[in-house]
Amino acid sequence: MTVPTRDSPRIASLVPSVTELLFDLGLGPWIVARTGFCIHPREAVAAVPKVGGTKDVKLEALRALAPTHVVVNVDENEWPTVQALHEFVPEVIVTHPCAPEDNLTLYEQMAQAFGALPGVHERAQALATRLREGLAALEGAGPWPLQRVLYCIWREPWMTVARDTYISRLLACVNWQTWPEVTGGARGAARYPVFDWDEARRAGVDTVLLSSEPYRFGGRHREEVAQALPGARVLLVDGEMLSWYGSRAVAGLAYLKALAQTGEPASGR
């Protein structure tokens, strides 16, 4: 087992998918803080102190843990929080993957920050190889028929994703084009627009994907949507597989491929 020394980094992750990535890169012994939404790998994160949520970080609790590095994300964390971190954290690492291939940059970003620790570069390179293989497998399985897809992330109000989000660009790998055809910009609420079902009907949506997160859609919601959008296919899907970047992205590509090929989620949800 690797034992941290006095000069070792003290890493806090405020991004659930990056927390999982850090553990997969072998950085578990150096992780000193996480959010309550950082739940993978389940057994390992249980021993790491929680410092609130992604949107409501408990800054004083985090300060007390004396992190040398804090990993944040443009979509996940609030800008005032990031500004406050700069007051007491030597290195704030900002991440913002917006497409599956951006994971290659993310792996390299973590390797650059923590590559002095044993095995990190090698694990990052192995992940990059697997991601490239997954992307090639998706491309090689095509051509994919065009689908107009509505990906639901919230209810009351109903919310979806703009086309310049990670989720939308992942779905585009199998020619599933998200509706509405809008972009949301670098950050902010416009990346996750509100919609109504009358608009969706007029747009001719083919498939509705009800995600397991951040809102946990279930069977009763599937029935509700089927009534609101007659004729459309409605699927319950694993939000972690379709929205988490980092190491989960490798499995996410395979999950999407199976979903596009069979029309049913591989997890059986």
Description:
By secondary structure, the chain is an alpha/beta fold. The chain folds into 2 domains: 11-137, 3-Layer(aba) Sandwich (Rossmann fold), CATH 3.40.50; 147-262, Rossmann fold. Helix content is 38%, strand content 13%. The chain has helices spanning 16-24, 42-45, 59-64, 79-85, 102-114, 120-140, 166-171, 197-203, 219-228, 239-243, 248-262, and strands at 11-13, 31-34, 69-73, 91-95, 147-152, 176-178, 207-211, 233-237. It has a 4-stranded parallel β-sheet with strand order 2-1-3-4, with helices on one face. A 4-stranded parallel β-sheet has the order 6-5-7-8.
What's the layout of helices and strands?
Layout: E1 11-13, H1 16-24, E2 31-34, H2 42-45, H3 59-64, E3 69-73, H4 79-85, E4 91-95, H5 102-114, H6 120-140, E5 147-152, H7 166-171, E6 176-178, H8 197-203, E7 207-211, H9 219-228, E8 233-237, H10 239-243, H11 248-262
Parallel strand pairs: 1-2, 1-3, 3-4, 5-6, 5-7, 7-8
Helix pairs in contact: 5-6, 6-11
